[in-house]
Amino acid sequence: MELTEIGAESARGSFSLIAGASVSTIITAVGAIVIARLLGPAGYGLYTLAFVLPSLFVAIADFGLCPALTMYGASLRAQRKYSRLASMIGSGLRFKLVVGAATSLLILGLSAQLVTTMLHRQDMGQLLVLASISIIFQGFFNLAYNAFVGLDRMEQGALVMVIRDTTRMILSLVLIVVGFGTAGAILGQVGGWIIGSLLGVWLLLTQRQAYRKMPGEIELKKGGRADLEVMIGYGLPLYVGSLLTVMLMQYLRIVLAFYVSDAEIGNFSAAFNFGALVSIVATPVATALFPAFSKLDFETRKEDLKRMFRLSVRYVTFLIFPLAIAIATLSKDLTRAVYGASYAYASTYLTLYMLAWLLLWGGTGLGNLLITNFFGGIGRTREALKVALVQLVIFLPVTPVMASLCRVPGSIIAVILSALVSTVFGLRLAVRKYGMQVDLVGIFRTLAASLASALPILPIAYYSLLPSLANALIGASIYLAAYITLAPVFKAIKRSDLEILASLLGQIRILRPATNLIFAYATRLLNMLERKISTT
């Protein structure tokens, strides 16, 4: 397969994947908000805890097959080894069936012991049993989705993702309303995984059947064991890194189960859901920026790689910092408007969580996601694993101590501390060992502009007598206007930055009208500032 053909296929599918992920995120966020309001803090806390162990076991049972099928799906198609590709798809599905079924049966058999020893909730064994049904279907779904990405069938990946999230939202709400409560919410989620995974597997098997009939190079050594050896051998390092990430979040919830009430966990989960709002912006930007690392050879194009690393830091912080700070400032009105007055602690948790999101999950200039993508892109996966291990070593002992002392705020502080240390470690590796550069001045200018833009909305956030929803909408509008005005004033963005950002974000059609308007305003403001400087 020629390089131009590969690029054309990727371009055709990329927008479908971004659009599907954005729609899925919005559906999931809306569903989580309505479920949280219907169940109340305590019920929502139990609902959250019910999926802690299933999510952890799904990650453990993958063994790197999902990223392996993405990679081999692309490479074997390029080599026209369709027979081997069809064999790998079949081997992966059979593996998921056996391991998923065994894992589900394990949780079913040990549910009483698990809820007592790991979740500190003796009365939620039945809820764990219901949630564990999703394990095998989550495994199927994840494998199919990753296969679609590797096979350049990204529109199918977007389709199954949207159908999964729509189904589980509708089912959960209906079952709660008719009287099944927390159990109904869990069954709705399980139903969504079942529908989404069955559709994904059917589409994947259809594709597999087509590959079996295609002419191409034949590779003699193939079959279940050989396929699994190859896929697990490739995916194991990536599997360890992704498993550590999942373990951190689920470990945090397990620790909270020992030290705080169901209502506090519900408040924390409500605050956690606001991360989806940030990811709506972060995901397409990450999709546009981060793959560039793998396209620049470290040995021959080091200077270009330096520039890409520096620009990635600046541009992602330029978009994510103000969004997180605005959410943190308006947290009281946002949580009250979205979840209601019963979620009394959610605003405090949300303010702290936004800082943690910046450092750990946001992919910002000070975030582990950027560092992980950089090391992975240049083929230094061991360095990415070191960063994850540093965070794990700090997070594991500090979290229980902080949770016992300060409950949920203490656990969020533990997340921030571990993320900050591991991020500094990763940046030192990137700068000292690989010669990368970080525009600290640009980052601090962006931070200053973001913080200054929050000043006009402080009276609205803390003293306004308007309803919470009105406060949030007015505050967000004022903050946006202030930020796009102050960013050029603080020199957080330059004319060349606007041109590059406009080009990147202009590829996403749904954002194009808004970005064109904002960038036109910022360009006029820069022109005025330049004329004023030249006259003085």
How would you explain this protein's 3D organization?
This protein is mostly helical. The chain contains 21 helices and no strands. The longest helix has 60 residues, at 154-213. The chain starts with a helix and ends with a helix. The relative contact order is 0.09.
Please outline the helices and strands.
Elements: H1 3-50, H2 52-60, H3 65-78, H4 82-117, H5 125-132, H6 134-150, H7 154-213, H8 224-259, H9 262-273, H10 275-289, H11 292-295, H12 302-329, H13 331-339, H14 346-361, H15 368-377, H16 381-433, H17 440-454, H18 458-463, H19 468-489, H20 495-505, H21 512-535
Helix pairs in contact: 1-5, 1-7, 1-9, 1-10, 2-6, 2-8, 3-4, 3-6, 3-8, 4-5, 4-6, 4-7, 4-8, 6-7, 8-16, 9-14, 10-12, 12-14, 12-17, 13-14, 13-19, 14-16, 15-16, 17-19, 19-21, 20-21
What's the short version?
Helices cover about 85% and strands about 0% of the residues. The chain is mainly α.
Which properties best describe this structure?
536 residues, mainly alpha, 2 domains, 21 helices, 85% helix, globular, disordered N terminus
